[in-house]
Amino acid sequence: MRSIWERRARLYDLCEGSDLRRGVHKKALFRRIRGRTLFLAIGTGLDIQHLPIGPAITAIDISNAMLEKSRGRAEAFSGEIQLVQADAMGLCFRDAPFDTIVTSCTMCSVPDPARALKELYRVLRPGGRLLMFEHVRSANPVLGAVLDLMTVVTRRRGTEMNRHTLSAAMKAGFRILAVEPIFLDIILAIEALKEDARAGLAS
Amino acid sequence: MEPHQASARSLRRMSVLFALADALFLMVVGLTSNSAMHLIHALEWNLVLTLVLGMAAAMAVQMALAVLAAPVLGSIETMVPSMIVGMLSPMQLCAVELIGYHTAPATGVFAGAAFGLVTFVALRSWGRSHGRFLRRTFSEM
């Protein structure tokens, strides 16, 4: 997986660089970032421009080539951002240091999203928020079939077009607070919560 | 006007512009993929060869258009709906040929554009209703 992204880093901005349509929606989602934040799979840093200034952000990626490409954007960012090479499926952080976790078109690319989401659950503090901007398999049978067909090809480049990210997040223990469809039911902005057991006891 | 009102208005304007662009894009995919199929039919090869090569030509045209439009309209936003149009629209011509009629090029083009527009309307309508369902479902949790 790492080698796929090392190779894709060279042409990533050319292929995926357009922010015209999705940027405004990402910015709206990222406005909900609070406190110490983990940004999963920062890639070449295209999303850094949408991040709010204020929270301390740790941005990780499995690929050193991607992180190198993101360095310029991170340095130009007025807020606090630290780039770290790490694997989403085995995060190098202790339990629950983060107040917010953000993913942006990431769950399509991790080999085992269930395992990655369990890791996200582990490193998010109770009461913390998970903000996801993801593309998923459509519930529409025709669109779903098209996405299944596309996955046959895109899988070779490290991307699955037919993930069930909403249900995977729920299975990992997150409570889904809100889902905003961005494009049909394929691109979604999701806000989820890691419930604080102590809050339940107190009430 | 308050800043949040200006922002909401500008978002709505963008949304309308992208919807128009999506509709136009799918109409172009429909008419060009139909034209590709029509060209193959005009060669009057055997049915199976015509179908296979016609679909290959139509899909090649569809993918090329999706890749060209992606920087403006988004990669998934172009590729997914256009695959529906690129695969199904040329089949209109094949179905008509199978029952013994030959369509004029202009008819094929018009049918392709119409198919693209109908696909846009159908997907958008479905997207809106399913979007309401998703918002309702998860706001109640």
Question: Your description of this structure?
Answer:
- The complex is a heterodimer of chains A (203) and B (141).
- Chain A has 203 residues and is an alpha/beta fold.
- Chain A is built from eight helices and seven strands, in the order αααββαββαβααββα.
- In chain A, helix 5 (113-123) crosses helix 7.
- The longest helix of chain A is centred in the last third of the chain and has 14 residues, at 141-154.
- Chain A is globular and about 45 Å long.
- The mean pLDDT of chain A is 90.
- Chain B contains four helices and no strands.
- Chain B has helices at residues 3-42, 47-73, 75-98, 105-139.
- Classes of the chains: A alpha/beta (203), B mainly alpha (141).
- The A-B interface holds A 15-18, 20-22, 24, 135, 139-140, 142-143, 146-147, 149-150, 161, 175-181, 183-188 and B 11, 14, 18, 70-77, 79-80, 83-84, 123, 126-127, 130-131, 134-135, 137-139, 141.
Radius of gyration of chain B: 19 Å
Uncertain runs of chain A with pLDDT below 50, 5 residues or more? none
How many distinct beta strands of chain B? 0
The strand count of chain A comes to 7
Terminal CA distance of chain A? 45 Å
Task: Provide the β-strand percentage band of chain A.
Answer: 25-35%
Structural class of chain B: mainly alpha
Present the secondary structure layout.
The complex is a heterodimer of chains A (203) and B (141).
Chain A: H1 2-8, H2 12-16, H3 23-30, E1 37-40, E2 56-61, H4 64-76, E3 80-85, E4 98-104, H5 113-123, E5 124-135, H6 141-154, H7 165-171, E6 175-183, E7 187-193, H8 197-202
Parallel strand pairs in A: 1-2, 1-4, 2-3, 4-5
Antiparallel strand pairs in A: 5-7, 6-7
Helix pairs in contact in A: 5-7
Chain B: H1 3-42, H2 47-73, H3 75-98, H4 105-139
Helix pairs in contact in B: 1-2, 1-3, 1-4, 2-3, 3-4
List keywords for this structure.
heterodimer, A: 203 residues, alpha/beta, seven-stranded mixed beta sheet, 8 helices, B: 141 residues, mainly alpha, 4 helices
